[in-house]
Amino acid sequence: MNVHASILGLSLAAGLLAGAYAEPARAATSQNVSNHGSACRNYNASEALDIDYLTSGARNINANARTVICPVARHPVTGPAQGVYIDGSNTSGATVYCGVYAYEYNGALLSSTSTTLPGYASLPTVSYWGHVSVLCTLPGSGGAVVYGVTAVDN
User: Fold this and answer.
1) Cα four-point dihedral sign 85, 86, 91, 93
2) What is the pLDDT of residue 80?
């Protein structure tokens, strides 16, 4: 039994020594999370062939305006708000509106706001288990491209 006690004692001493020289724990930091614009999809099923996916994002190639819906990947936040930045280009000259929506895990709408492309919006209410999406109406003939959507942790 003395051998087992010695081994246990040495193991504990080694563990304590290793813990004393280990890197200290760091506080959690917030991080922004981005989705590429090609994650956006046609909002209306009948318009699937009108949305063109590029290495830089998504655009509407139909002559008429079309709407795309984009998922927003995010860290669950404990605060009541969530910032969203929609990156893109708009060569059409027309204002491109994007709605930003926060839903509870059960699909109930929590809050919404809007911005233009490119633009930033802050949702006043999101939940830990909730979901966020962006809906942009793109002008025809490739007049605008959604490059990506970023959840901004404040």
Assistant:
1) negative
2) 79
Taking residue 60's Cβ as centre, other Cβ atoms within 10 Å add up to: 27
Cβ contacts of 139 within 8 Å, gap of 6 or more = 60, 65, 90, 92, 94, 96
Q: For the chain, first and last CA: distance in Å?
A: 58
Structural domain of residue 69, as residue ranges?
30-152
Specify the pTM. 0.78
> Looking at residue 85, which CATH number applies to its domain?
2.60.120.260
Whether residue 139 contacts residue 92, with contact meaning beta carbons closer than 8 Å, is answered with: yes
- Over 90: is that where the pLDDT of 39 sits? yes
Least confident range from 13-22, 70-79, 80-89: namely 13-22
Is 16 inside a domain boundary? no
